């Protein structure tokens, strides 16, 4: 990490990842598992899971749903490791077709949203430095929930007036105080609030959403497609992350389900290389918001991929997920 990454309940200076390759007919697809501690995965568990897979039984890489269904059934959990397979498979098949996945899906690359840039919880002087470094972004994502929420917002507002979104990472536990805080945040130019309360506080969260002047977005409360029904009418929308939902295929299905329920959609990320970021970006034209800055928070990206240009997700025409290895 370029800076220590602090959330409402934890800090870290690095995130373990596992990179994968799937080879077929002289083409290589690249994938990635990013495993922040709360996912419960690490390099050892990912290696153990991947060692169980026998993809050589499949002779046609375009049988994507069948291959990923098999991968999902091998062992429960391991969503990031499964995402590494999904991303590599999509990269491979896109290269075999010779087109990027946003084009295969028939999406307009001009319809990508702006991406936020994440400002972690820190001392005012460090927050100020981070905000100045993010001057090219048109929206900032601010981590809250550690007891210094207003100090964080005041510090950022001393530097910039761009719109903000806030991610509380389950840091608020009193619904009335949370509502008061949201009304104050709206006055500060905040456009939505992500995961304000603990995921088990469903009734309190539904009340908060019903009274909130801002949309509420589920993150920790929603992981996979099967979770969407439980957050419907509890949150205004969902944050979809490839590492939580097993990859691009399930993410696209989650987008369809959320649209059917008239829920807002955000495509997010962990701290990842440009491999996983570029994979998620292929879906971004379908989303209201994007938070695809994970590759910008690290010092050792191994890939060149999609870019953020004038704050907007900018897709390229490289086949597959839109990346090439550096060097």
Automatic annotation (TrEMBL):
Its EC number is 5.1.1.-. It comes from the Bacteria. The active site is at residues 143, 241. It holds the Pfam family MR_MLE_C. Its cofactor is Mg(2+). GO terms for molecular function: magnesium ion binding; racemase and epimerase activity, acting on amino acids and derivatives. Binds 1 Mg(2+) ion per subunit. Residues 124-215 form the Mandelate racemase/muconate lactonizing enzyme C-terminal domain. Belongs to the mandelate racemase/muconate lactonizing enzyme family. This is Dipeptide epimerase. It comes from Gaoshiqia sediminis. The lineage of its organism: Bacteria, Pseudomonadati, Bacteroidota, Bacteroidia, Marinilabiliales.
